[in-house]
Amino acid sequence: MRFALSTNWNNARLDDGAAIADEAIALGFDALELGFRTMPEQIAGFKSRLDQIPVDSVHAYCPVPIGAPSGHPELHQLAHHDEEERALARLLLKKTIECAVELGAKVVVTHAGYAELDGLFVNLDSSVLRRLAKGKDDKPDVTRPVYAKHLAKAHVRRKKRGKKLLEVFRRELDKVIPELEKTGLTLALENLPSIEGFPNAEEAEALMKDLAGAPVRLWFDTGHARVRASYKWDDPETDIANRFAPHVCGMHLNDVKDFHDDHRQPGWGNVDFAALKPLAQRDILRIFEPHEPVTFDELKTSLESIRRLWS
């Protein structure tokens, strides 16, 4: 079974793309995902190691756009009501597609955008819900009546706002799909760890039905799915994984302790990776996407453990 490493893990420590690739090789990874922190000057180093460790996927936006303060997957959003914002997102996505072609990648992973839940009198976004979930001990408790009350209202607002955004986003995809078809790339829409994250399960289902046969698929982030399920923003992550398995072209392997987007190595937190084995055994990309402070040894042990678990 093939596993790749997101370069976001060691990009901040190592300036040279070749050195980043060498570290992934030493860990035992089979391929790379170029993360959204990739700098233009690092591309040559990655290209010099393609015969040893190929690039399976590229995470938009990559490389970091000139003039941007830092790399970020949501510098601009394709799922947005502002026309200028969408135009900028298309431009950056085009640059990412060019990078993916240059490196021989198969998939471009993207954060589409957000169905905002602000209101004239009451905001119902994720930050508000997180505060309402906290009890006296400052720990999240989704059984709190005040949380349940506001969550129900948030779901109603989220459905209405998402429906409007879906129409806008669908038209944007029509502008992107010809470039994907020309290059042979697949655009993968990642699940995001907030109630506003677009598309949610309902919207993803509508998109996959409408785009059958198009080079647009879904991307399953294990940690994001656990966070969404923990706050009851979505169904349990194993249910989501099974429901959308035919439409998923890849997954980010992150572990979390339920409520926080920790991005730790698999085996560290509460994600049930054994239950995700049916999805992992499909013909998809499997990308480890840890963040600091995960160490070399922790990541190596985690990779070996997941190989055994899913073999």
How would you describe this protein?
- This protein has 311 residues and is of the alpha/beta class.
- It has a single domain (4-115, 167-310), classed as Alpha-Beta Barrel (TIM Barrel).
- It is 42% helix and 13% strand.
- It contains ten helices and ten strands.
- It has helices at residues 17-27, 43-47, 83-103, 126-133, 145-183, 201-210, 222-230, 237-244, 277-280, 296-310; strands spanning 4-6, 31-34, 55-59, 107-110, 113-114, 186-190, 197-198, 216-221, 248-253, 285-288.
- Strands 1-2-3-4-6-8-9-10 form an eight-stranded parallel β-barrel, surrounded by four helices.
- Strand 9 (248-253), helix 9 and strand 10 form a beta-alpha-beta unit.
- Helix 3 packs across helix 5 (145-183).
- It is globular.
Helices and strands, with pairings:
Blueprint: E1 4-6, H1 17-27, E2 31-34, H2 43-47, E3 55-59, H3 83-103, E4 107-110, E5 113-114, H4 126-133, H5 145-183, E6 186-190, E7 197-198, H6 201-210, E8 216-221, H7 222-230, H8 237-244, E9 248-253, H9 277-280, E10 285-288, H10 296-310
Parallel strand pairs: 1-2, 1-10, 2-3, 3-4, 4-6, 6-8, 8-9, 9-10
Antiparallel strand pairs: 5-7
Helix pairs in contact: 3-5
